[in-house]
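Summary for the funding panel

The consortium committed to producing paired sequence-structure records for every protein in the target list. Below we show the first two records in order, beginning with the earlier of the two.
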Amino acid sequence: MSDKEMFSDLLPAIENGILSVSGSVPVVFEGIEHVLEKNTSLSEASKHDTHELLYLRDGEIDIRIEGSKFTLRKGDTVIIRPQMVHALKVSSKQADMLILYFGFVPDPKELQVVANVTIPDPTTGGTKTTGPRAPLPVLAPTSLESFMKFATEGEERSKKDPYFIVSGDYKYDVASVAERIIREKTEARYSQDLMMRLLTFELMLTLYRTMRYEWEESLRVKNGKAKELVLIAKNYMDSNYDRGITVNDAATYVFLSQGYFTRAFKDEVGVSPMNYLMNIRIGRACELLRNDDIKVSAIATSVGFASAQRFNVAFKKHMGVTPMDYRKNKSWNTKRRTSK
């Protein structure tokens, strides 16, 4: 039996197993690549029956989804849910993006490639490719979370959001699979249909992992683990500020993404971890500056700054004066400490 025959026999078994669990199977209907110039709008406002994955290879775009506005930068990936009104505009000199449209069908026989459709582009006078406009197979009313048998609480939470941004290390994995899907769709390769179906499953599993990871981290915060993790990280920062550690180092120490850690830390301590770390360093620097025998450059290093220049800038921003002026003005120095 050839490899093709082996996989051709195996795939229906996989699809039938997924059907028995979720009632549908995933399919990528269309893959598009765009390189757009600054101020170009891909669409004033559009919505699709499918999920839309947008991966920004390079540049910067402003995006609006159901009233929410934010900026995507190089390396970012967003998943827009079906029937969500969205629009985007290039804000950098140029933007290179990759878009996949995917959904779920109740019958594996409906898995088929929908040809790209071009429409007039009033901006350039030419044409552009948009979301799937050709007739699609019958789509199953299945959410991404339901398909993956996401936990009930996680499903209810994520249904409130018209989109989610793929973050953490998994965003590189998602981007890699998306690139392979585009390449497979644009090049006539051996067993293309079979490979597309396998890559679609890989994309779904990779998305599942990143969503599960984000959800588990949010549960740690929600279920009271935040206080414990924040205290551990705070002690770590108190003990290691002089080693030049970053907020990401502290987040990694307690196994949280930087975004979740920053929110949990601010909720618990009242200030952001960045400000907390800066307060420790500047506070210790003020103590050392009272000793005229210690050079400012030595103080900068001893409190965790990479250079005296960075220390000077940070100190002035924080205290309103340079380290040398702080040292010279003894009366102001004392008054400042007393007022605190």
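The next record, for a separate protein in the list, is shown here:
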Amino acid sequence: MFMTRILPGAFLLLLLTTAHVLPPSALADGKLMPPRDYKGSLEESSQEAIIIFQGSTKMGGAVEDLILKITVHGEASTFGWVVPFPSEPRVTREDARIFKEVFDYVEARKARSGKGKKGKLEAARGAESRPVVVLSRKVVGSYDVAVVREKTRGTLNGWLGKEGFQTLPDGEEVIEFYRRKGYVFACMKVNDAGLRKDTPVDLHPLRFTFKTGGRDGIYFPMKMTGLQTAPFNVNLNVFYKAWLNDRLNRYGYVNRGFRLRFRDWDSTACKPNRGKNYSAPETDPYLKPLAHRIPSVAKLFQKLHPGKRYYLTNIQARGLEPREVRDWSDDLWLFPYYTDPDVVPFDARPGEVAHTAWKQD
């Protein structure tokens, strides 16, 4: 019998705040596509993301809100950005201030705690015939967003070419990986970025809401980033009702090259295992001293998950090699910290959505 209890403290909000704490480099989640007539370099120099994960007791019921923000270098006035998803996402615009606020919060919390407190936490409870199908298309801020599914092998590159973007001649293997899994691609065309040589440009965030196809695995796309050329860093700030599995067993994030940098704990003023009220931080005994630093974060939680409680965990990976990431058996899937080390996460079991990511070699 599998135990389903998990320790508090991990995955609701995931941020990559590399622009603040890590040297500029390409980051994970998709692939930037320059126009066909652009000969220079166009890579993600930093990218920030927020994942709001809603797990489920039923397989297929889990939902993520993935908010992505990137900084790019280059001289192209128009470029595309391709990100794979397990299912068709809804796409909306978000406020960029949430990224800086969470970074400031983590730094302030670390300054208060020195090396950080570990804290004691107890266990808690018609189109089908077309080779590329356009599922949806709309303008969201600076982006023209098309969500497509490749039905016939080798046709996505042709579709990108017709849309005016440079194809990925070395990308067919990765594209085919996603096609076999039935994934879709969110293809963003940016027309007003105003890129200039040696001048990084921040693009406003987009929020993608989608079903993961599972119940306890949190999805983050990384394999397509293997088509880039430069090593990259990943900095994740994660909010959830439970901690992430770090090193409890082979499903822990340390086995993907990540390390713990910070996580919330329960002080003597906190109710054990209840999490923190990020939608009303001024009322939370743990968050109250720093509530003034996160007003936009509070608004985000008020809008999406009012009254729910989470812990924040910050993990990092540095110097990931694109080729090595490309050779991963799947994208990045992370799981809660189940108290029994013999528990296999639901989504990592045979036949489930994350099984190939953590299969036994």
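Regarding this second record: Confidence is low (pLDDT under 50) at residues 1-27, 119-128. Helices lie at 18-21, 97-113, 156-162, 172-180, 295-304, 322-326.
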